[in-house]
Design a protein that fits this description.
89% of the residues lie in helices and 0% in strands. It is mostly helical and 195 residues long. Helix 1 packs antiparallel against helix 4 and helix 2 packs across helix 4. The protein is rod-shaped, with a radius of gyration of 39 Å. The two termini are 16 Å apart. The relative contact order is 0.11.
Length: 195
């Protein structure tokens, strides 16, 4: 009986060592994952800051252009029906490639046709920009999913760490129980032999 108890003790001790090794590897994996998550937090914060600076810059540029446009329109050089991007682009292009004055350009019979061609070009550009924006939104959504996934992994790893600690305590308790049980088994064997 003592031999059986000792063999069981050795087997249980071997299992406890294996469990401790698995626990150690799990903790190392947890620590590596935590470091990766922390590194990603820094990258995300840097990207968000970069995005905010760019957004702030572009909004400032927009306000400047809007102010310039309002100032020029208030001079009433250009008739109100031609105060849109298509007309202004057409007039600029027409005047910069010819010797015509603004007055002649406005009286020119092909201005509507030119504006329509410009509109078609702008529609194409707008469609391309919408597609680019759409793909950027998809990437942003994927980044949000990645961030959420990292958070979930982090939470699961925290729970796993708590579970590992509980398992460690249970293994330690089992080891103490095994040692005590082995001792008392041996003691019972010795005591029954003496009687």
């Amino acid at each position: 009986m003592l031999a059986i108890g000792l063999r069981e003790y050795k087997d249980d001790k071997k299992k406890a060592k294996e469990s401790a090794l698995i626990r150690k590897k799990s903790i190392e994996k947890y620590e590596k994952e935590m470091a990766r998550i922390e590194a990603n937090k820094g990258k995300y914060a840097a990207l968000a800051e970069q995005w905010n600076r760019r957004d702030e810059y572009l909004n400032g540029e927009y306000r400047t252009v809007r102010e310039l446009l309002d100032n020029f329109y208030s001079m009433n050089i250009l008739p109100s029906q031609y105060r849109n991007i298509q007309s202004v682009y057409y007039l600029y292009n027409y005047m910069s490639t010819s010797q015509e004055s603004l007055t002649n350009a406005l009286l020119h019979g092909h201005i509507e046709e030119g504006i329509q061609k410009t509109l078609q070009k702008l529609d194409t550009i707008i469609a391309q920009n919408e597609e680019i924006i759409f793909h950027q939104r998809i990437m942003e959504a994927q980044n949000e999913v990645l961030i959420e996934t990292n958070y979930e992994i982090f939470s699961e790893l925290e729970m796993s760490n708590k579970t590992q600690k509980e398992i460690s305590k249970k293994i330690d308790t089992a080891n103490y129980y095994l040692k005590a049980n082995t001792y008392f088994t041996a003691a019972t064997y010795l005591s029954s032999k003496n009687h």
